[in-house]
Amino acid sequence: MEETLPGVDDGPGERVICHVDMDCFYASCERLREPELDGEPVVVGMGYEHGATHGAVATASYEAREYGVDSAQPISEALERLPRVADADRSDPDAPNPGAAGHYRPVEMAFYESVASEVKAVLHDLADTVREVSIDEAYLDATAVTSWQRVGEGNDHTEPEDSRTLAAGYGRHVKQAIQRRVGVPASVGVGPNMAVAKVASDHDKPDGLTVVPPSAVEGFLAPLPVEDIHGVGPVRARELAEMGIDTAGELADADPGRLTSRFGDRGRELYDRARGRDDRAVTPRGRPKSLSRESAFTEATDDETAKREKVRALAADVAERARSREALYQTIGIKIVQPPFEVNTRAESLSGPVDDPELVRAVALDLLAEFDDDAVRKLGVRVSKLSFDGGRQASLGGYDAGEGTETDGTDDGESPATTLTDWATPRREDETNGERPATLTEWAGDEANANRTSDGANANRAGDEADANRANDEVDAKSRRETGPTQPSLGSFDDSEE
């Protein structure tokens, strides 16, 4: 957790809520792998391959949207509006124009989830309370680390009032931290409650920052189209239009009794939202199932000492976080990202839950040994299968993991403590010994959407309250890559939830 930003008042005040929405997230992830795609139309989906008969768009970059391509669109329609670059040929007059063609990429969920876990680790560093909505958005309650206090007088002609608040500085800090540490853009909205923050994050896309102080809520919302109010979809917008309500201001001025009569309790809720009222608390979705930390090298390295030092530091950090939450863990794992973005995971399962920082370090270093000769760009350490019941932890003795690992002897002249294999019968989860291999889905702390469609559409996004129940997808032990058609909820970014 970072220190409180300077100048924050100690006393209570209006809440400061941030909504973080990753812009065209899948396309942004593809640009991480292929920087040459920056500024180019990018479509992520399934079914564009030769011989494919159906499919759908999962994500389209803003450049692709200019051609009429959008999420959940049939891939055949997308190809009509924006042909593939691979099909373009300047020498063929009947071929698509290369200047009006797009780059199509398949959905690679494991990679996207890996990037998402990095983003959400940043968010957990910046706020005590984070509510993860989906793979690409989250709410932060930043009340404890910033405020609506104004800083400096500024120039009313060149600088809007909201940009001179500590809350605005915090929002900029969130955006910059995500860009600097992960390399993907985000739009951030800051407001006094969840509903206003959500509308604010949608207001200036892509890569935008919109800050709405409490005193500016009414003026900000009133001129917006009614469909911009959080909770108003296309159908409800048409119904409101039939009632003569086209803007948020008109909804705020409407008779709440009439709205309730037409829409039930939802009518009153929308009335309150249009007035900027929302008393919902930003609450995490449950206790974490895992805790992890990741760190990248400035450049890919095969330096064994550097890799081991980083893993030691990450292991100590993760173990301390688990102890601070009074959590025991039964699985210890590492993540290794090799150039350009090849993601691998390895894990050991213990016979029972423990709280043992030295064991986390030893197991993590032992798992890292497989990659001693390999260049890596990023490393991570994770503990999972957490328990919070305060039960007695397993007695594991020492762990003989080779170089750099300490084992404890006894005081009565007996031989050193037996290895973890003797005590806990660990299971190396990347081996084909009948155990289910650790997956990147698990690393990111999510459960894959059990209702994934065959065409890769992200058509049914249910808003910020939607919980996607997702099945754990098996990933090959070496590459740990999986593909999947939808854009599911990750649960907690850094810490997966029950």
Provide the fold topology:
Blueprint: E1 17-22, H1 25-33, E2 42-46, E3 56-60, H2 62-65, H3 75-81, E4 103-105, H4 109-126, E5 129-134, E6 137-141, H5 166-181, E7 186-191, H6 194-203, E8 209-211, H7 217-221, H8 234-242, H9 248-253, H10 256-263, H11 265-274, E9 290-301, H12 304-324, E10 329-338, E11 342-354, H13 357-368, E12 376-384, H14 420-424, E13 427-428, H15 440-444, E14 448-449, E15 470-471
Parallel strand pairs: 2-4, 7-8
Antiparallel strand pairs: 1-6, 1-7, 2-3, 5-6, 9-12, 10-11, 10-12, 11-13, 14-15
Helix pairs in contact: 4-5, 10-11, 12-13
Please provide a written account of the structure.
By secondary structure, the chain is an alpha+beta fold. It folds into 3 domains: 146 residues, 5' to 3' exonuclease, C-terminal subdomain (DNA polymerase, domain 1, Orthogonal Bundle); 82 residues, MutS, DNA mismatch repair protein, domain I; 155 residues, Dna Ligase, domain 1 (2-Layer Sandwich). Helix content is 29%, strand content 18%. The chain is built from 15 helices and 15 strands. The strands form 4 sheets. Strands 5-6-1-7-8 form a 5-stranded mixed β-sheet. Strand 10 and strand 11 form a beta hairpin.
Summarize the structure.
The chain has helices spanning 25-33, 62-65, 75-81, 109-126, 166-181, 194-203, 217-221, 234-242, 248-253, 256-263, 265-274, 304-324, 357-368, 420-424, 440-444, and strands at residues 17-22, 42-46, 56-60, 103-105, 129-134, 137-141, 186-191, 209-211, 290-301, 329-338, 342-354, 376-384, 427-428, 448-449, 470-471. The protein is an alpha+beta fold and 498 residues long.
